[in-house]
Amino acid sequence: MGNIATRYEKSALDRGYTNRLLSVDLTSEKITAQHIPDDTRRMFVGGRGYCLKLVYDGTTDATRYDSPENVLALAGGPLCGETGFAGTGKFIVGTISPLTGTFCDSNAGGHFFPLVKLAGFDAIAVTGKSSCNVLLVIDGDACTVSLVEAPAVETSLVEPEKIIEQWTGEGKPTGVAFVTSGIGAKNTSIGCINSIYYDVRRKRCRAKQAGRGGTGTVMRDKGLWGIVVKCNTPLSHGNRPADRKRVQEVGSKLRRVVSEVDAKAMSLGTQGTTSLIDMMNGFHLLPVNNFQYGIDERAREISGDVFAEKFFKQKVPDGCFPGCNLGCTKGCESLTLKTGPQAGMTVSVDGPEYESAASITNLGVFDAHWILEYSWYCDEYGLDTISAGVIMSFLFEAYERGLLTAGDTDGLELKWDSPEMVMKFLHRMARPQGEFAAAAGRGIRHMKGWIAERASQHLGRSKSEILETLSLFAMECKGLEFSMYITKESLAQQGGYGFALKGAQHDEAWLIAIDQLNKELPTFKHKATALLWFPLMRTWFNIMGLCKLPWIDVRHPEAKNTDDPAKNMPTVEYYIEFVNATLGTEKTLEDLLLDSERCYLLHKLINLRQGFGTREHDRIPLRAMSPVFLNEFTSRRDYYREYLKNEVGISLDGKSDDQLLHELHDYRRGQYEKLADEVYEEKGYDSQGIPTDETLARLGLDGKDFHSIVKAARERVMS
Q1: Same domain flag for 312 and 457
Q2: Is residue 487 part of a domain?
Q3: How many domains in the chain?
Q4: Where are any strands of DSSP class E within 458-537?
Q5: Which tens digit of pLDDT belongs to each residue from 399-424?
Q6: At residue 83, what are phi and psi to the nearest 5 degrees?
Q7: Is residue 695 part of a domain?
Q8: Residues 6 or more apart in contact with residue 552 via CB below 8 angstroms
Q9: By residue range, what is the domain housing residue 146?
Q10: Residue 630 lies in a domain
């Protein structure tokens, strides 16, 4: 490695853009600053759109996650980094995923990408592979980019302040941020990327995660230890919007709504997203024992109130980027670890977020210490808390049902409500130790085949029969493990997981509250329309560089007076004003949704190109639609009997619970297929989930290559 710095001419921010891409080839060590064409900006906007475009252009149908040409793309958006508005620290990481085999992206907050924009770049594209571990350093003060030898540590969160201090120089620690991953990402397919920045109030580093889809695994496979950015241009100089006064005025309006509403509703400012634990548990939505149950009286021991009172000692607003008064980035300042290589060390823990906490309840554990220790080690190892927890819960149930033995698990006795076993398994996965732990780190889709191969030998059943049984409760879709909501009684959220392009992740369509709690989607048409509109709106947040929480979790008081309160249109109007004040445009909501739909369609086309993306890949496990086994049915026996009688119109006379359960299975599967028909029609797809030629033309993606992808997909279905 030459360690020679490449100089570049900084492109100043103007109206949210620098119009520059930083391209890095780790094989050749070639670093270039490239102009982003105007057509790319017009068609794909930024953030997720830029990541999609970079991955599509740089890969082929033969590209796998570990192919040298695979692109690891990082991008903010035109609204990312604006301190005059709430929730603007977000950026997207996108790549061909080791879990799904196609494009997957994940978002993270913090200071990293706002500093990258100040340093002169709207996006970063990393290709190739380095022969040794390297660190990419972007120095926005000196206008240089360099590849240097990586730190000689396999750690993300033990003293990250040393990395910040190393690169601060004459500036301030807030002028440096970095992304990295850990040894677990290197050894599994579920690696996350930590976005690390210095918090002046807490006087320590904080970490946010791009957790889903194995982005950290791709980073480490490329030999990239991380990316450091240094830029001491004040964050408040930010985006240089067309009309700063207008941005500040509309930003003040949103902050007033947040101040007025949050404390009376979600309490994100005091409890973070742990506030969801009580809500989900109260409506049978909190995953317990691999999504078998949705409620447990022990949940009161880990409620949002418990975390706020015992662990979240810092009372000042905890936003992950200046300008956001929602302040949901909570943290525990002192936790003494009980297990693993850092046992006995006292650490600070960022979060936990609801998803991390529910990953532990899903293993039958209801103890705040273990939730915090699990969260810290996942971040330290660079592991997605969701995938790690759901993989383990699937394997625990397979063990419970006799499909795994202690001989298969290298002696691990997998049982619910055993935090020590959870942590032992986690440490083995990250390192890894033993064939079983190494296989588990490759995800549920891989483990179904792994278990079926072994179980067929000691059970005397065929592999296909065992695989069919496992698939009933293997909580993955498209290769991505489910995020943490029980969807059995919410058809809309079943679709929100099944039709999500990246797999079963709630950030594309989180409809469970408006469907099951608020009863705002009563008909198939309502659900199908929501499964068009909300994914597009959420995609729009991801292409602009915005956090969704100030919109979706803080409902404007005037929303109740609108035709569709769930869309929270009074707040959406603030975002439209924000866009136009920044870009100097007069865009309407329809314009924004059209931009979003084009990016959404490109993701669909990548899925199809990689051999996925059709109706068969939108199907979800039975456990997501219904109780699978009698123990689940009888845990809510009265509810399901009333449901079958009154909602489905089935006679209960003389029927056993087992018979009723199978009738429920048939009904729920049929409902999901009907929903698919409605959703595909709404989205402009054919009955197999493939975009029509009219849809390609309407969104400007009707070139020869795109038509070839669609044609090949149709031929696969026909064959």
Answers
A1: yes
A2: no
A3: 3
A4: 476-477, 480-481
A5: 999 999 999 999 999 999 999 999 99
A6: -80, -5
A7: yes
A8: 510, 568
A9: 6-237
A10: yes
Q: What is the DSSP string of 119-183?
A: HT-SEEEEES--SS-EEEEEETTTTEEEEEEPPS---SSSSTHHHHHHHHTTS-GGGEEEEE--H
**What SS3 state is found at 114?**
helix
Residue 103 and residue 55 in contact, taking contact as beta carbons nearer than 8 Å: yes
- Do 204 and 287 share a structural domain? no
Residue-wise pLDDT for 663-689, tens only, equals 999 999 999 999 999 999 999 999 999
Is residue 447 scored above 70 in pLDDT? yes
**Confidence bin at 18 (pLDDT 50/70/90):** very high
Of 441, 458, 481, which closes a domain? 481
Claim to verify: residue 227 and residue 258 sit in the same structural domain: no
Judge whether 377 and 427 are in contact, CB under 8 Å.
yes
Q: Structure pTM?
A: 0.97
Indicate which CATH number applies to the domain containing 369: 1.10.569.10
Choosing from 210, 237, 264, the residue where a domain stops is 237
User: What SS3 class is residue 679?
Assistant: helix
Beta strands in 467-520 (DSSP E): 476-477, 480-481
Q: Please indicate, yes or no, whether residues 297 and 210 belong to a single structural domain of this protein.
A: no
Among positive and negative, which fits the CA dihedral 289, 290, 293, 298?
Answer: positive
Tokens of 492: 């809309």
Q: How far apart are CA 437 and CA 412, in angstroms?
A: 10
What does the alpha-carbon distance between residue 358 and residue 361 come to, in Å, rounded to a whole number? 5
Q: How far apart are CA 625 and CA 306, in angstroms?
A: 32
Same structural domain, 283 and 166: no
Question: Radius of gyration of the chain from Cα atoms?
Answer: 24
In contact, 430 and 381? CB cutoff 8 Å: yes
Q: Is residue 512 a part of any domain in this protein?
A: no
**Which backbone phi and psi does 202 adopt, to 5 degrees?**
-90, -10
Indicate if 228 and 256 belong to the same structural domain: no
| Environment class of 397 (CB within 10 Å of its CB; exposed 0-12, middle 13-18, buried 19+) | buried
- As given in the structure block, the two tokens for residue 473 are 């409760």
- pLDDT tens column, 233-245: 998 877 999 999 9
Q: Tell which residue, 489, 493, 473, has the closest CA to residue 481.
A: 473
Judge if 227 and 268 occupy the same domain.
no
Q: Do β-strands 123-127 and 20-25 pair in parallel, antiparallel, or remain unpaired?
A: parallel
CATH number at residue 60: 3.60.9.10
Q: Judge whether 149 and 135 are in contact, CB under 8 Å.
A: yes
Q: Are residues 207 and 258 in the same domain?
A: no
Helix axes 569-583, 244-261, angle to 10 degrees: 160
Identify the CA nearest to 239 among candidates 101, 100, 89. 89
The tens digit of pLDDT for each residue in 277-318 reads 999 999 999 999 999 999 999 999 999 999 999 999 876 668
